[in-house]
Amino acid sequence: MTGPWIPFSKPHRARNELAYVEQVLASGHTHGDGPFTEQATARLLEIVGARAGLLTGSGTHALELAAWLLDLGPGDEVIVPSFTFSTTAASIVATGATPVFVDVDPRTASIDVGAVEAAVNPRTRAVSVVHYGGVAPDMDRLAEVAHRTGIAIVEDDAHGLGATWKGRACGTFGVLAALSFHATKNVQCGEGGALLVNDPALLARAEILREKGTDRSRFLRGEVDKYTWVDRGSSYLLSELSAAVLAAQLEEFDTVQAARHSIWDRYAAALTPWAAAIGGDVMSPPAGAGHPAHVFYVLAPSRAARGDLLDHLRGVGIGATFHYMPLHSSAAGRRFGRTPFGCPVTEDISARMVRLPLWPDMTDADVDRVIAAVLAFTPARIP
Ligand SMILES: *Cc1c(COP(=O)(O)O)cnc(C)c1O
User: Fold this and answer.
1) Domain check: are 280 and 235 in the same one?
2) Does a structural domain hold residue 2?
3) Are 8 and 263 spatial neighbours (Cβ–Cβ below 8 Å)?
4) How many angstroms does the Cα of residue 163 sit away from the middle of ligand 1?
5) Positive or negative, the Cα torsion across 103, 289, 159, 12?
């Protein structure tokens, strides 16, 4: 069962990435918004079926842009899940607004729509929905709550490229959606991201905030004869060198996704009965949520069993890992956020989750080894 280390994640090498990077260097246009930015953006919009998008230096930058575009400030609240990455909340804190932490749904590990509804108050401006592992919560119900209470939906779609809810692409539900191309995501360029702009009224300002507060994007299109400082802003562009890698990666999106899904399906088939037998669980997205095979996780029967399972897997050379620590009880979450109700599901899954290696170039033998290692594990005490 032991063998060479199988990492948790390993970026896919796309066929054209080196040639494209060379092309960028040869062209001299290494800064943002060159031809590869255009190519990658077009492909992204095609995959998601969104109208407009801007590449950014990271998913976090896209979230920050979204927070500024909503004109958040002190006194405003945005509802976020406790079970997520720090910057879902930190991007809100950057504007002076308050993240309000709510629990997640045990079936999706994504935001609990009932908790969102209960947390809305007159200060609430938006809800940030994280599709955990690309598994959307009930978006019909969330849209109904948002519409009725007059709050905006923003999607932290960092896991969700290729995900759907009832056939509609994740990334098209919010007024704004943030994608990430960090090295660990399904499509990667080291560090990178994109902001999808689904409300056309926000696009012009999005371009300005991303271009250091200037109207340089309009200048480059010949719409104004010089560019000046017109609004707040920062440097949120993606380097054309990174965009070249991203464009090459996106050319292979379909094959990468097919490979990931086949590994995910093998894990689910082999490990579902095992999990049931030991009183645990495996990731099982509800009908309606089309996941993008971004993660595959098991839930050990207890926190102690999770520790033992991780030790066991690492001991035989398998890079399994835990995931998010709850944000609501973190040092910064307590300092900057508000938590109106307990988040017991977040605490529970955070304590019991083990994510298995999942990357497109894993061999069948790698997958066999991971499965065999998991099946060989029995917790010390079945609760
Ligand atoms: C990866 C990730 C981000 C941030 O993306 P970066 O590109 O690393 O800045 C934000 N939210 C979630 C849920 C993520 O997984």
Assistant:
1) no
2) no
3) no
4) 16
5) positive
* Beta strand spans in the chain (E): 53-56, 77-81, 98-102, 124-130, 152-156, 164-165, 168-169, 176-180, 193-197, 281-282, 289-290, 297-299, 353-355
- Whole-number Å distance, alpha carbon 228 to ligand 1 midpoint, is 31
Look at residues 201, 228, 252 and tell me which one is the last residue of a structural domain.
252
Please say whether the dihedral angle defined by the alpha carbons of residues 109, 113, 119 and 123, taken in this order, is positive or negative.
positive
> CA-CA distance, 162 to 186, in Å (whole number)?
9
Same domain assignment for residues 184 and 316: no
Residue 131 resides in a domain:
yes
| Tokens encoding 153 | 């939906």
pLDDT in tens, 165-177: 999 999 999 999 9
The encoded tokens of residue 13 equal 């090498």
Is 276 part of any domain? yes
Query: What is the span of the domain harbouring residue 229?
Result: 17-252
| CB 87 near ligand 1, within 6 Å | yes
- pLDDT, tens digit, for every residue of 200-237? 999 999 999 999 999 999 999 999 999 999 999 999 99
Point out the domain boundary residue: 220, 252, 284.
252
Domain total of the chain: 2
- Whether ligand 1 lies within 6 angstroms of the CB of 84 is answered as yes
Q: Is the CB of 128 under 6 A from ligand 1?
A: no
pLDDT of 2: 83
**Domain presence at residue 11:** no
The closest-lying atom of ligand 1 relative to the alpha carbon of residue 185 is 1
Q: Encoding tokens for residue 100? A: 């309000």
Together in a domain, 337 and 199: no
In this structure, which residue's CA is closest to atom 5 in ligand 1?
A: 59
Assess contact for 347 and 83: CB atoms under 8 A. no
